[in-house]
Amino acid sequence: MPRAKNRVASRAKRKKLLKMTAGYYGKRANCISIAKDSFLRSGVYAYAHRKQNKRNFRSLWIMRINAATRQYGVSYGKFISGLKAKGIELDRKALAHLALHEPDAFKKLIDTIAA
User: Of 34, 36, 49, 66, which cross-links 76 as Cys (Cβ 3.0–4.6 Å)?
Assistant: First the structure.
């Protein structure tokens, strides 16, 4: 009697892999062994860039806050230290939102730092 190799499960595993790599260029999209390598490497990049994304956003928020504070003659560092001294606990994401979308509220923050 021939040995059963469970072709259904292995075929399904390969089909799942090829579905994940659909849209890749060349053999990366349709050759199982190359597609597997590409897919695993893409996962490594995705993991690393999820971490990098957080750094990039924090950098963007700091740039926006700095640009907004410079309009009023205050540096970013003085602004942040002034907020801490006054006990105002707003994170950089919220400050960047205020600087970009609600300049009047941001101006009030600048005034409280100066006072």
Answer: 66
